Amino acid sequence: MLAEPTEISSGTATLLEYDPTASLGKSDAGNLIIAGDNLVALKWLLEDYATAIRMIYIDPPYNTGKRFTFRDNFITASDGKSSSAEAGSHDVWWNFIFSRLHASRELLAEDGVIFVSIDDNEVHNLRRMMDQIFGGSNFVATMIRQSGIAPRQDARFIAVQHDYVVCYAKDSKKMKLNRKPSELKGFVHEDEYADVRGRYRLNKLDRGSIRYSESLDYPIEAPDGTEVWPGGNPEDKKWTWRWSKNKVEWGRENGFIVFKKSRDGKNSVYFKEYEHVDNKAQPRIRTNPYPSIIRGAPNEKGNRELNALFKSRVFDYPKPVALLKILLKMATDKNSVVLDFFAGAGSTGHAVWELNNEDGGSRKFILVQIDEPVQEENIALDFPTVADICIERVRRAAALFDPSQKGGHQDLGFRVYRALARQSA
Length: 425
Ligand SMILES: C[S@@+](CC[C@H](N)C(=O)[O-])C[C@H]1O[C@@H](n2cnc3c(N)ncnc32)[C@H](O)[C@@H]1O
Fold this sequence. Notes:
This protein is α/β, with parallel strands linked by helices. It has two domains: 7-180 and 291-419, 3-Layer(aba) Sandwich (Rossmann fold); 194-285, no CATH class. The chain has helices spanning 38-49, 86-105, 123-134, 194-197, 245-253, 299-310, 321-331, 347-359, 377-380, 386-398; strands spanning 7-10, 13-18, 32-35, 53-58, 108-118, 139-146, 162-169, 180-181, 200-204, 206-208, 220-221, 227-228, 239-241, 257-261, 267-274, 287-288, 293-294, 337-340, 364-369, 415-419. It has an eleven-stranded mixed beta sheet, with helices on both faces. Strand 11 and strand 12 form a beta hairpin. The radius of gyration is 28 Å and the shape is elongated. Bound molecules: S-adenosylmethionine. Residues 37-38, 59-61, 70, 317-319, 342, 344-345, 347, 368-370, 372, 386 line the site of S-adenosylmethionine (SAM).
C-alpha cells in the first residue's frame, strides 16, 4: 500500500504529486483521490495495488453525445476531427474504454469483481469488450437499475427509465459475492433458546403434496395421547409430514415441535423456524440472492444528495449513494479496497464512508477523476475542474459523519495526488 505522502514515480518520470492542501486529515489516510487521466493513474496504481482491489465500480461517459458538466461525446476522434459516421463514434468510445478496462483488470484481486454502469448507447459494445478482456466465462450478470422515477413525457414512444450495471469477475471460480441478508418477517415468538436461536415463527408440519410419500405419512402422538395424521385424516393420501419420523423425534427433544389444539379439540403439529439457526439447530444467516433489478436508487436521489451538499447543482447525473451501497454490500467485506476510476462527483467515496459508518467497516476507496475543465461557466467559477468538484464533494461528505459517534472509528481523510504529466490513450 502507498505509505508515504510524497510522490508516486514511474521510472524516472514523476507522474503524480501529493497535494497536502487539497488532502483531508492525516497524511497516512488510506483513501486516495487522484486528479488526472485514469489511464495514467491505473498504470501508477499497478505498482502498489496489483491484485489488491476487491471491487471496481465505474460509471464512464455513456457516449450520449449530450453536453453535461463533463464530456459525454465521443463522436470527435482523438485527432480532433469530427466523425459523422455512427461507427466512428463507437470506435472512439471503444478504444478509450478498452485501454482503461484492460489496465484495470490487473488491479483486481483474484476474488474481485468489476461493475460498470452503462445505458443502451453502448451496452452491447461493452458486453463484447468485457468478454474479450475478462473472458465470457467470467460474466456474472447485467443488472437493470431504475434510473428515473417519472417517465419522460418528451419520449417519442417509450420513455426509458433504466440503465444497466454490468458485472464481471476477475475469475468466476474464485469470486466472492455476498448474498442479501433476508428481511426477517414474522419471527415474533420467543422461547428458552432465544439467546442462541433468536426468535421464531411457526410453520405447519404437514403439507398437501402431489408427491405423496408413504414414509412421511405416519401418526404423531400428541401430549394428550391422541394420534395426529397429516391433513388430519389417515385415509387422505395427499397429505404428508415435511419431516421424517426420526427428525420429528429429534425435534420434540430439542424444542422444535409445537402442538396446538383447535376449537374442535383436534391437534395440529407445527415446527419452529428460528432467526439464527436452521432446522438442525446449526447457526445460519438467512440470505437471498440479490435481484437483478435495482430499485430505490434513481438519478433523482443522486441529484438531491449532491444539491443538498453544495446548496446548488454542480454536476450532472451523480449516481445515488444508495446504488453504490448495494454494490458494495454485494462485493466487499469490511476491509476491502474499492476503486472508481471515473469518479465524477465522488459518490463512491461517500458511499464507502456511509456503509463503514453503518456496519463498522474500514473499507478504503481510491477515486480517479480527470481534471477536465467544467463545461458550465457559473459552476467553473467555484470549481474550475471536475476533479475539484470530486474532491470538494468527498470533503463535504466527511463532515456528515461524526467521529465521536458510531462509525467514528473510520478514517475520514483522504490524500490527493495530482497528475503532472499526461499520457494519451
Ligand atoms: C458519468 S460521470 C461519473 C459520475 C459518478 N459516478 C458520480 O456518481 O458522480 C463520468 C466521469 O468520468 C470522467 N472522466 C472522463 N474521462 C476520464 C479520464 N480519462 N480519466 C478520469 N476521469 C474521466 C468525467 O469527467 C466524468 O466526471
